């Protein structure tokens, strides 16, 4: 785990918490019950239910540990409380490249990033380039496909 803060939106934190609660309160107890039942059936070395159940239980426990660490390290930032004149955490930004192609991205925490829906990590190359920018600013971004320039067209916070 890195030393940088784990910024997250309230919705992102709620999603982490909901997954943790679902795994801890529903899936894990059901799995423990299945493992207990399978263990009672005798020879555990060839008992598929027992072996698979133990493997799945380790996966759930590992995920619970990871979620717990991420929630402890989280710094919940309310996007609507940000300074609306600059690109900061939680901003939804409309960018235009050199070819006037527009792209709308929302800067969110690493745990809630989904590039397919335009939600990019606060630590991604594009987000790092436009942090602190104002409407009309042009920023250069080094991407895997090469260097691009983006102009900030609009900034909004929801």
TrEMBL record:
InterPro entries linked to this entry: GreA/GreB_C_sf (IPR036953), Tscrpt_elong_fac_GreA/B (IPR028624), Tscrpt_elong_fac_GreA/B_C (IPR001437), Tscrpt_elong_fac_GreA/B_fam (IPR023459), Tscrpt_elong_fac_GreA/B_N (IPR022691), Tscrpt_elong_fac_GreA/B_N_sf (IPR036805), Tscrpt_elong_fac_GreB (IPR006358)
Pfam families xrefs: GreA_GreB (PF01272), GreA_GreB_N (PF03449)
Domain Transcription elongation factor GreA/GreB C-terminal: 85-157
Superkingdom per UniProt: Bacteria
Transcription elongation factor GreA/GreB N-terminal domain residues: 6-76
HAMAP family, alphabetized: GreA_GreB, GreB
Keyword Zinc-finger: no
UniProt-recorded Gene Ontology molecular function terms: DNA binding; RNA polymerase binding; translation elongation factor activity
Gene3D superfamilies linked: Transcription elongation factor, GreA/GreB, C-terminal domain, Transcription elongation factor, GreA/GreB, N-terminal domain
Name used for this protein in its record: Transcription elongation factor GreB
Alphabetic keyword roster: DNA-binding, Elongation factor, Protein biosynthesis, Transcription, Transcription regulation
Species of origin: Allosphingosinicella flava
Swiss-Prot/TrEMBL GO biological process terms: DNA-templated transcription elongation; regulation of DNA-templated transcription elongation
Protein family membership: Belongs to the GreA/GreB family. GreB subfamily.
Database matches in SUPFAM superfamilies: FKBP-like, GreA transcript cleavage protein, N-terminal domain
Known role: Necessary for efficient RNA polymerase transcription elongation past template-encoded arresting sites. The arresting sites in DNA have the property of trapping a certain fraction of elongating RNA polymerases that pass through, resulting in locked ternary complexes. Cleavage of the nascent transcript by cleavage factors such as GreA or GreB allows the resumption of elongation from the new 3'terminus. GreB releases sequences of up to 9 nucleotides in length.
Keyword Thylakoid: no
């Amino acid at each position: 785990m890195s030393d940088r803060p784990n910024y997250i939106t309230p919705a992102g934190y709620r999603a982490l918490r909901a997954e943790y609660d679902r795994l801890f309160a529903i899936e894990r107890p059901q799995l423990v019950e299945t493992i207990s039942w399978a263990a009672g059936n005798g020879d555990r070395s060839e008992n598929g239910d027992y072996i698979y159940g133990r493997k799945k239980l380790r996966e759930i426990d590992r995920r619970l540990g990871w979620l717990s660490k991420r929630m402890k390290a989280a710094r919940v930032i309310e996007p609507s409380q940000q300074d609306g004149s600059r690109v900061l955490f939680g901003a939804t930004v409309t960018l235009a490249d050199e070819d006037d192609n527009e792209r709308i991205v929302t800067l969110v925490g690493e745990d809630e990033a989904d590039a397919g829906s335009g939600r990019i990590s606060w630590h991604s190359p594009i987000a790092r380039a436009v942090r602190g920018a104002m409407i009309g600013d042009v920023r250069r971004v080094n991407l895997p496909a090469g260097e691009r320039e983006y102009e900030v067209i609009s900034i909004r916070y929801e």
